[in-house]
Each structure stands twice: as C-alpha cells, then as structure tokens.
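Page 37, top half.
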Amino acid sequence: FQNASPPPPSPTPRFLITALLVLKAAPETSDPVILANASDVSHFGYFQRSSVKEFVVFVGRTVASRTPPSQRQSVQHEEYKVHAYNRNGLCAVGFMDDHYPVRSAFSLLNQVIDEYQKSFGEAWRSAKEDSSQPWPYLAEALTKFQDPAEADKLLKIQRELDETKIILHKTIDSVLARGEKLDSLVEKSSDLSMASQMFYKQAKKTNSCCTIL
C-alpha cells in the first residue's frame, strides 16, 4: 500500500479588515473625535505595528473630516480601501483590503453606527476628546466580519444601501481639498509620532509605504 499523501497546508488566513473606527465628525467639529477604535495589525511586521496603528488613526480622522453628513465614500490605495459613512455627524470608518465587497463594507459600517447608538445614544454629541475606552462590540465585529458573507447577511436587511450613491476616490490625495498635500498633513499631525513620520518618509522613498497609505 502506498502511503497516503499528506494533507495540503492550511491557507494563510487573510486579514480583510484591519481596523474599524467610530468618530464624531459633525459639521461644527473642526477635527473629528475618535469615539471607538479597534484594529488587528498582527499581519504587519512587529516593528511596523505601532506606526500602522497611528496611521489608522491619522487616515481615519483625515477621511472622516472630509466625509460630509449623509455621504458614503471609499478611498482606494493599491490593494486597500478606506470606507467611510457619516450619518448625521456620527461616522464609521473601515480599513479593508480590495477583496472585501464595497456594499458589504458599507452594510457593516451601517451596523456599527446602529450598535453604537443603541449602546451610547446621543452622548457622542458632547464628546470633545478621543476616547481610549474599548468598546467590546467593535472588537467582536472586527473578528466576525472578516468573512464578507457575514456582512452580506446585513446587506439583505439594509435595503436603503441599494439606492445610495457611494463616491469612490482613486487615492487619498483626491479626498483632500485643493492645495492640501498629504505630506504636509503628516508633518502637522498630532496623531503621528516622530518615528511614524520617519517611517512614512522612508517607506515613501522606497515606494513601499505602509499599506494603509
């Protein structure tokens, strides 16, 4: 008898969602306030992880501040997309890879906002500083919805998404106001440490910048 062939190795798990954030991005707010933040950066190199987390905050805040109320938009960069949905000043942002279906991503962000309002009501309107308190639901959603099929279940009951236009931007630069430069925002951002700013500049030179950007 011949020996049975060994089973094929298990596929490396894909990280379709890197981060989910909820922010206060009301018109009267000059700089969006982070209300909840969950991320999984374990698929990045150990020494990159802290910088990636900082860039998630920086990019999330940047995109949220440029997503008007009642608007959905996606910013694509290489194989990643940053999706944002601003519902009356409460904004959910998701960092997904390009394999995650766009409408599934927005059904998830819609669900995140629903759950946030169920948990905290309108208390977010008075928030003035970033919250460091973990919100268990967001961490659970980050794990559960790695499978887009789970988000598809939400899509079936969120019919309004079918009639809502989603604005797609090719790069993050296309979201910025005329005359704004990403490099300049990086230098001015209080979300990024000097180490992360250096990481951004060095990675940009070698054309291998943190995949979030």
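Page 37, bottom half:
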Amino acid sequence: MAGGEGRLRALLRAANVLLQQRRYRAALAVIKGFRNGAVYGAKIRAPHALVMTFLFKSGSLREKLKAIAQATYAHSRNLAYFVFTYKGLMAVQSRLQGKKIPFHAFLAACLGGWLVFGENNPINSQIIMYLLSRILFGLSRLAVEKGYIPQPKQDPFPLVAALVWGTVLWLFEYHRETLQPSLQSSMTYLYEDSEVWHDLSDFLLYNKRTDSK
C-alpha cells in the first residue's frame, strides 16, 4: 500500500516537472486547450439543451435525457477538437516562421472551422450564428477605432435593436422557414401560443391544455 502511494507521488512529481519544461509548452498548451474546449462546451450546452428540450420537445423522459446528452457531447467534442486544431496549427506556424503574426490566427481558425464546424447541423449552426453576431459588433467597433467610419454622435444601439427585432419578426411572420428551428419554436411559444386558450388553466398556469376537454 505504502509502495503504491510512493509511486503515485513520484509520478505526480515527474508530471509537475514535465509541465514546467518550457520546450514542451506549445504541445502542452494544445492538450490543455483540448481539455478546456471539452469542459467549456459541456458547461455551455448542457443547461441550454436541458431548457430547450423540456420546453419544446415531446417524448419520454428517457428520450429527452438522451437528446440532452447527445447535444452536450456534440458541442463539447466539437469545441475540444477545434481548440486542439487551432492551437496545434498556431504552434506549427510559429515554429516554421520563427514568430507569431496576426495572419496565423486567421488561417488556423479558418482551417479548424472548416474541419470541425463545416457540417451543417443544428449544433454547429447555433455556434456559427452566435459567433456571427459578435463578429458584426466587433468589426463595427474596430472600424470606428481605426477611423474607417466616423464615431457616432449618439449611441447606435437603439437603432440596431429596432432593426434586429423588426427584421426577425418580419421573417417569423412571413418567411418562417428561413429561421433556425429553435428560434421558430421560441417565437411560436411567445407570439402564437399566447393567442390560444380555453380556460384559466391554459391562460395562466399552462401554455397548452393536455387533457381532451
């Protein structure tokens, strides 16, 4: 027993020494990036999948739990693979060129995005749309910082909010099929189901009546 504990301590010490070696830092960063991608993907997807599944999907409890697990695994796996690919390509480019330059990040992320997120499925679609909205905001701010467009005299956010909501509700009302399924479900719940009720039970307590009255 004591011998086993001693070997474990020796192994931990050796691992800690390895982690401090500067020459292995790039490779170790790739491994930790894979770990962080997997953990972060699970943390982000699990609560989202839990809420959306129980709110909008039908089926047995087992089927719902299976859907949550599958969505969480897919998000966690893809993010882990992407971070691993991105960090690995960044390390290779930096090693080959002797330094890190801005284009390295763009090229590594493009290749990673193509390889990992290139399949058009609900999980990847949600991630890409999430990133796209933040990219548009980021590029707008960068354009102002670089002087490509003038600094607005007033906060443009109210106008952006008005245009976004106006556009998305117009699409929902007249071109619903162009919106992502989860967004369609959310908007149906908010804007269509709120027009249907039979008595106090499905007016205040429930969204829809489950009995056959």
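Margin note: Helices lie at 2-19, 25-56, 61-97, 102-117, 122-145, 157-174, 181-192, 200-205.
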